[in-house]
Design goal:
The protein folds into three domains: 67 residues; 135 residues, Rossmann fold; 159 residues, NAD(P)-binding Rossmann-like Domain (Rossmann fold, 3-Layer(aba) Sandwich), CATH 3.40.50. Helix content is 50%, strand content 15%. The protein is built from 17 helices and twelve strands. Homohexamer.
């Protein structure tokens, strides 16, 4: 009897494995050059297998083939005029991936690497990240292959206005609510909101999040992703009866997420010794002075190597990938996708890393992830660990709808509660599906089942 039971389970698992492989092959055949999207799908499929074994309704309703195909993918031309009077042209994107639990929600990225594959991978990840927050928001993403670096304010304004002219007819407070991402901060959001307001002839504050405080923005939004990352890490540490106080921390990047992760980590007693930008990294054995990094990056818009001018005891090294050579107990990759590979993961493990949490979207390659799991490094995936930004964006939407503004303390308190709930939901889901401690599996299953159940209930079959 027991042997037959084991055989039946094995047969079901094999059937699910074949189904996953069949769907994945269709995705690759349909869009063979979308490597980043394929990688994101592969990670999700590998994680959710136990959920499909336990809940055959997801296969019966063919949820996977639906969820991997965007409900809508918009591509458009963005012409703009530079300061020399020459017309330039970029390509813009908006992927509206899944609206089963709420309006599409996800950032806009302005960076030369942006293409169809990038926005699809980001939008696909956003479906499950948004579901984990517990807020009623679906998954979307967008951007353009435009590089704000080296552009004047006037050029950036003209680009943003042209971009929004094309995007405006596809978004709205109850339809699709973009926010910022790499290359899109408060300045860019302001220019785009101004253009949207002009086109619509009305003040629809909830159409964009990450806005300035003077026109409907939320306190704590700027800090949210970085602070939320540390709140999540804090829950990881507490589960092991440890504290962040006294821990040595390495944070890649020096943008918004990195800065506020460093700030909150230092506030809680952690010692951040390194951060980076795309040129190189700085190491300060006394602990990074966050105020200096803020001044350089947020005010003066300079490169990170300038840090050593104010702190001569610090060391600057070219090649940002070298940051993972620095021994630490906690590593927080906060720069960009696939920045931390197998070799870097092995080096971190050799140097004693115990916790890794993703501040960026998919910054660790699949090979790096395998290294961490094999070495019992407690690993927080981005869709859970960096969900603080979109969580507070949703709170900004709520404030806009009610015509109210909450205090910093109230927003921060709700953020802490959301990140605590995300961690415990991921942990509980991993436990339920016999993968205790595996937050990758826990996060992916918890996010997937919520969206998949909603799709079935809505009759999206």
């Amino acid at each position: 009897m027991y042997a037959n039971s084991k055989k039946n389970v094995s047969t079901i698992e094999e059937s699910v494995e074949n189904y996953l492989e069949e769907v994945y092959k269709k995705i690759v055949q349909r869009d063979p050059h979308e490597d980043e999207f394929h990688q994101a799908v592969r990670i999700i499929f590998k994680s959710i297998k136990p959920a499909l074994v336990k809940n055959p309704k997801y296969i019966r309703h063919n949820i996977l083939e639906q969820i991997v195909e965007p409900e809508r993918l918009i591509t458009f031309r963005v012409p703009w005029v530079d300061d020399q009077g020459k017309t330039r042209v970029n390509r813009g994107y908006r992927v509206q991936f899944n609206s089963a639990i709420g309006p599409y929600k996800g950032g806009l990225r302005f960076h030369p690497t942006v293409n169809r594959s990038i926005v699809k991978f980001l939008g696909f990840q956003q479906i499950f990240k948004n579901a984990l927050t517990g807020q009623p928001i679906g998954g979307g993403k967008g951007g353009a292959d435009f590089d704000p670096k080296g552009k004047s304010d006037a050029e950036i304004m003209r680009f943003c206005q042209s971009f929004m002219t094309e995007l405006a007819s596809h978004i709205g407070p109850d339809v699709d609510v973009p926010a910022g991402d790499i290359g899109v901060g408060a300045r860019e959001i302001g220019y785009m909101f101004g253009q949207y307001k002009k086109i619509r002839g009305s003040f629809e504050a909830g159409v964009l999040t990450g806005k300035g405080l003077n026109y409907g923005g939320s306190l704590a939004r700027k800090e949210a992703t970085g602070y939320g990352l540390i709140y999540f890490v804090n829950e990881m540490l507490k589960s092991k009866n440890e504290r962040i106080q006294g821990k040595t921390i390495v944070v890649s990047g020096s943008g918004n997420v990195s800065i506020y992760a460093m700030e909150k980590a230092a506030e809680l007693g952690g010692k951040v010794v390194a951060c980076s930008d795309s040129d190189g990294f700085i190491y300060d054995e006394n602990g990074i002075d966050v105020a200096t990094v803020k001044q350089l990056k947020e005010v003066e818009k300079k490169r990170i190597h300038e840090y050593v001018n104010a702190h001569p005891n610090a060391v600057y090294k070219e090649d940002c990938t070298g940051i993972w050579e620095i021994p630490c107990e906690i590593a927080l990759p906060c720069a960009t996708q696939n920045e931390l590979d197998e070799d870097a993961a092995n080096l971190l493990c050799k140097n004693g890393v115990k916790y890794v949490a993703e501040g960026a979207n998919m910054p660790c390659t699949p090979e790096a992830l395998s290294v961490f799991l094999k070495n019992d490094v407690y690993y927080g995936p981005g869709k859970a660990a960096n969900a603080g930004g979109v969580a507070v964006s949703s709170l900004e939407m709520g404030q806009n709808s009610s015509r109210m503004a909450w205090s910093f303390e109230e927003v921060d308190g709700r953020l802490q509660e959301i990140m605590r709930d995300i961690y415990h939901n991921c942990e509980a889901s991993a436990q339920e599906y016999d993968k205790p401690g595996n937050l990758v599996v826990g996060a992916n299953i918890a996010g997937f089942t919520k969206v998949a159940d909603a799709m079935i209930e809505l009759g999206v079959i």
